[in-house]
Design brief:
This protein is an alpha/beta fold. Helix content is 62%, strand content 15%. The chain has 3 domains: 226 residues, Four Helix Bundle (Hemerythrin (Met), subunit A); 147 residues, Reverse transcriptase/Diguanylate cyclase domain (Alpha-Beta Plaits, 2-Layer Sandwich), CATH 3.30.70.270; 252 residues, TIM Barrel. α1 packs antiparallel against α4, α3 packs antiparallel against α4 and α12 packs parallel to α13. 29% of the residues are buried. The structure holds ligand C2E and calcium ion (2 copies). The site of one calcium ion (CA) has 5 residues, from β14.
């Protein structure tokens, strides 16, 4: 069965994860909200119920209290009446007993009223009426008892007390007992209800907590899975990232299997061009497809990782590396553009390293990187195997770089000036500033250090160092009363990446107060196809500030004369390689130079030929109206003092 492409497989996984994380997010929110609402509801209702419960208990206790008071009052009242009867004392003492009994009677009745208010409209109301009628009977009879007493008939009074009043009291008491029993049962039932409610609330809280815990654990597990994937995966192509690849290689090394594999660093050739032609989105699509197609070739134990941009690392079994390289040569991607489906072959640069037993992943990656750099530098092949020499070269470059940095601080760089001569009168008409490095008693020519500085970006610093020296020298000559000539200064195309390049040049000119007529900025022809808009903007800004610009090494690249039409440079420098072929008997070549020179002049630009070494070459150039030359025929690059002498004596003694 055909393997599902990595991008589909992983994208599906990622979508699943996205969906899952969205669901988790929603679930978490909903659960949290329900949990909060549930807790609030349970807490509040529990509070309300328990306060209601407390109220009920309180009033029930108050009712019971009333009942006990009534019962106690009755016994007390009865005792006082008995005492009143038995004492037979109808003097003041006896009267006091009667008074006291009436107070007790009032107390009993007021407790009954209180009870009545409390049970009004309740099921207990019947007790109130029952007790009330019994008490009414009791007190009516007491009035009779008192009547008999006051009439001196204690016997009948006593009889009354014993016969009927006791029965009232026992009826009242039995009603009170009944009531107390009922209220105790009700309170016990209420207690049970409260217990049940509390149990239900507690169970609710436990359930909510359990739900929250389960959800938290679930989201933690899922989130850690997703974050693991994010940590180890490239977001665009869904293949492994560099860190994951490093870990995998370390694992192979630990198992002693690393040397069974080869490591290939791949870079897509002219990927920038794809982006420019088809747009960034199509560029992304190419990266995804490229990674996916490589992944389809790989076996289970082989790996691909994206190493940023259009760089990929592949670990492949050593015996399959040739097969892999043949496979990668044939990668094609379908790109939608301009309403059409274009099949685009995607070529790769590859740096390959055969892994040895003692190699660490870090060392292997560095070796592959060096091999890839060599492949990209444009040699014979797009596929380059790592060799020890590359490491030595790299070391050497690093050494040069460090020494250059030191050299710049120690002012070891000096500027030479190569004259430009007007061939019609053989008079010095300009010059080019060329840097030299005075290091350890040796004068090192630019080809030995400029490419390294260019590769590492340090050339930017050196160019401005040279430019400042030139401005300083011009100012010095003017101060000495020597008239200088226009000096062209070389600037690497790397400067065009800096949007403040033009402003920096203007700032230096201002610092040294140099007249712009003495300054010319040389940029190579290759700058034009790296970033034409940036070059055009720069040239226009120079023009606006009356600073000359020239296009160096014209004819060595792919730029055309029609491009010159859009670029406002003042001077075109025809490269030495064209001049070398003059006088070699190739008429077509000479005709071509003639036409190029004429076209440049037609475009109203100055033209200068570099590397003029013979008078024959000079004669030919003169014959085709090219009047300015630079070359050994007139002068080699001269040091400051030699050139100063040339400024004072600008005429050449040539035929
Ligand atoms: P270039 O800008 O094309 O400079 C002309 C080179 O041709 C100079 O080499 C010069 O000495 C050499 N040359 C001139 N006339 C003749 C001739 O008749 N015969 C021969 N055989 N050679 C001739 P140089 O000084 O070694 O510079 C080499 C390159 O280094 C320059 O090529 C330029 O690209 C770069 N360079 C020099 N100085 C600087 C600098 O300050 N900044 C930057 N960015 N590049 C510089
Ligand atoms: Ca130059
Ligand atoms: Ca040149």
């Amino acid at each position: 069965m055909r393997r599902e492409p990595v991008k589909k497989r992983k994208r599906r996984k990622r979508l699943d994860n996205q969906r899952r994380s969205n669901i988790i997010l929603w679930l978490t929110c909903v659960t949290m909200l329900t949990a909060i609402a549930g807790m609030l509801y349970l807490g509040v209702s529990q509070k309300i119920i328990s306060s209601k419960y407390n109220d009920i208990v309180k009033t029930d206790l108050a009712k019971k209290e009333c009942m006990s008071r009534i019962s106690e009052g009755l016994y007390h009242h009865q005792a006082l009446i008995f005492q009143y009867i038995i004492s037979g004392d109808r003097s003041e003492d006896g009267y006091n007993l009667k008074e006291e009994s009436e107070d007790v009677r009032d107390g009993v009745l007021s407790n009954l009223d209180k009870f009545g208010e409390m049970v009004l409209g309740q099921e207990y109301e019947s007790y109130y009426y029952g007790i009330y009628s019994e008490l009414k009977g009791y007190f009516t009879n007491i009035d009779n008892v008192l009547y008999f007493i006051e009439n001196g008939d204690e016997e009948t009074a006593y009889y009354y007390m014993n016969s009927s009043l006791n029965s009232y009291i026992s009826k009242v008491n039995s009603r009170i007992e009944e009531f107390e029993k009922l209220i105790s049962e009700d309170m016990a039932e209420l207690d049970r209800q409260m217990d049940r409610r509390t149990y239900r609330s507690e169970r609710g809280i436990v359930l909510i907590l359990a739900q929250v815990i389960i959800l938290s654990v679930f989201s933690m597990v899922t989130c850690s899975k997703i974050s693991n994937q994010i940590i180890s995966e490239d977001a665009l192509t869904c293949v492994n990232n560099y860190e994951k690849m490093q870990k995998y290689c370390a694992k192979l090394a630990a198992q002693g299997k690393f040397s069974d594999y080869s490591c290939v660093f791949c870079n897509i050739r002219d990927f920038k061009m794809f982006n420019n032609t088809f747009g960034d989105k199509a560029g992304d699509h190419i990266l995804v497809e490229y990674a996916s197609q490589i992944d389809m070739f790989l076996k289970r134990d082989e790996r691909i990782a994206r190493n940023g941009g259009d760089n990929f690392i592949v670990i492949v079994q050593s015996e399959r590396v040739s097969l892999f390289l043949s496979y990668i040569k044939q990668i094609e991607v379908t790109v939608a553009h301009g309403g059409e489906q274009n099949i685009v072959p995607v070529e790769s640069y590859c740096g390959i390293c055969d892994i040895q037993r003692e190699d660490t992943p870090g060392a292997v990656f560095s070796s592959c990187n060096l091999a890839l750099k060599t492949a990209r530098a444009g040699g014979n092949s797009n596929f380059v195997w790592y060799e020890r020499k590359m490491y030595d070269d790299m070391k050497n470059r690093k050494e040069i770089l460090t020494q250059c940095q030191k050299g710049m601080r120690k002012n070891e760089f000096v500027v030479f000036y190569q004259p430009k001569v007007n061939m019609s009168d053989n008079i010095l008409c300009g010059c080019e500033a060329l840097v030299r490095w005075k290091h350890n008693e040796e004068l090192i020519p630019p080809y030995r250090f400029i490419p390294v500085l260019e590769e590492e970006g340090m050339i930017v610093e050196l160019d401005f160092y040279v430019f400042e020296r030139v401005c300083r020298d011009i100012k010095e000559w003017l101060d000495k009363g020597i008239t200088p000539v226009r000096v062209s200064v070389n600037f690497s195309k790397l400067h065009l990446k800096d949007s403040s390049f033009a402003d920096k040049i203007l700032a230096v000119i201002e610092t040294y107060s140099v007249d712009t007529r003495y300054i010319e900025i040389e940029l190579t022809e290759s700058s034009a196809y790296d970033d034409f808009p940036a070059l055009k903007e720069f040239v226009d800004k120079m023009k606006k500030n009356s600073i000359f610009t020239s296009m160096d090494d014209f004819g060595t690249g792919y730029s055309s004369l029609s491009m010159l039409k859009d670029l406002n440079v003042d001077v075109i420098k025809i490269d030495k390689s064209f001049i070398d072929d003059i006088e070699k008997g190739d008429i077509t070549h000479e005709k071509m130079i003639e036409n190029v020179v004429h076209m440049i002049l037609d475009l109203n630009r100055e033209v200068i030929c570099e590397g003029v070494e013979t008078s024959g070459q000079a004669d030919f150039l003169k014959s085709i109206q090219c009047s300015v030359a630079q070359g050994y025929l007139y002068d080699k690059p001269l040091d400051h003092d030699e050139f100063e002498r040339r400024l004072i004596n600008p005429e050449y003694d040539i035929r």
